[in-house]
Structures are given as structure tokens and as C-alpha cells.
């Protein structure tokens, strides 16, 4: 049960401690979730809004993009400091593969209101994870496995919550559970710098700042959860050590 609880917690990309309990009528919420992402809405939102903001206004630089496969299944794991992180990761992939890209997110946070749930499911295309195993709705990693089995590119934040700007919290072990379930699926670490200062937690106004995304070497299941986590941590530290930090900060 302890492993299950950890996996449940680890898989949530937005584990805000003060997340609200959903106020959405269960029947309405089930209908939104059942419909899933709306391809045209997603395409237009990312083409007209997200990509111009991330690539032109924020000027995001990407290093090592060739290490990303253009097709799934694939697990992309990143550090997490800002709501911009999901948009930044989704911008790494070409528009014609957007329909395959699915960020993991905590259901109790992203489905807490009707309209936020609609946007999160239909436009962002999140994989909502129920973090409360006591509700008995199956293993929290099952929805992620289902998407990987269908060839999705799954985005996951192993820290489990947004941390302080430019400070990386220890990774939770849910990623190792997923790697064991899908030993042939590549895991691609991405270290992101600057997003936590461009849109810190609790802020709603963008601040111009240097934004970089460093794509690391692909990893795969090592056969052991401890060594898996060690390799992931080592690769992230290598990327962080090589990150370009502005001299003025």
C-alpha cells in the first residue's frame, strides 16, 4: 500500500497542497472526460497563442531537441517551477504531433471547476490522475499506461508539485514504477531554466526572463527502481550543471 500511495502522489504533475475538491457535477465531469481532447481546438490554441508566446515573446531556447523522438510512446520528465512548464514542454514537439502529447495532471486541481475541467481536458489534453487511492477507482498509473500503450508522448513532472523558482525538489518514485511497467518506452529528461522566474507560483503576470530547455540523453528501465532513480537524478544534475545562467542573476 505504501508503494501505491507513493505512486499515486508521484504521478500528479500539480500536487498543490491547497487544491480544492472538485465542485463539478459528477455527471457533467464524466461527460467532459469521456469526450477527451478536441484536436482542432488544441491545434488552434497552440498555433495562435502558446507557440507565439513561448517562442517569440518569451524567446525560449531549446538545446538537444534532436534527442526527442517525433513519435511515441515516450515519457518526457521535467523539473517543475511554473504553470508555463507544461506549455514549454508541449512546444518542443511539432504541431503535427500535438495530438499525441498528453501532460499528466492532478484531477483534484485541474478538474475542480466546470470550465477549468473543460479547458484542461478538451484543450490541454491532460491525463487526469486521481490521487486518492481510497476512492478505489483503480491504480493511479493505469490512465498513463493506457496512453503509453496507444503511442502517446506523456509529459510528467516527477517532483509532484511546483517548487520554488529554479530550485529542484527530490524526484518521487512514480516515474520508476512507470519505467518498470513499460521497460521499452524511452524516458527523456528535460531540464528547464527561467520559467519559475517568468511566471512564479501564485503570480498571474508574465515577467520577461531568459528561458532555456535542455533535452538530455534517453534513459530506459534499468531493472531496479533505485538505480533508475539514480540515473535520472544524475542526468538532471548534468543538465543543470551545463545550463546557461545569466551573469546578472
TrEMBL record:
Q: One biological-process term from Gene Ontology? A: phosphatidic acid biosynthetic process
| The entry's keywords | Acyltransferase, Membrane, Transferase, Transmembrane, Transmembrane helix
GO MF, one annotated term? 1-acylglycerol-3-phosphate O-acyltransferase activity
- Please verify whether the record's keywords include Acyltransferase: yes
Entry keyword Nuclease: no
The protein's matches in InterPro entries, at most eight in alphabetical order, are given as: Plipid/glycerol_acylTrfase
Positions of transmembrane segments = 43-62
One Pfam match, given by its short name, reads Acyltransferase
Pathway the protein acts in: Lipid metabolism
Phospholipid/glycerol acyltransferase domain segment(s): 74-195
Annotated protein name in UniProt? 2-acyl-glycerophospho-ethanolamine acyltransferase
What lineage is this protein's organism placed in?
Bacteria, Pseudomonadati, Planctomycetota, Planctomycetia, Pirellulales
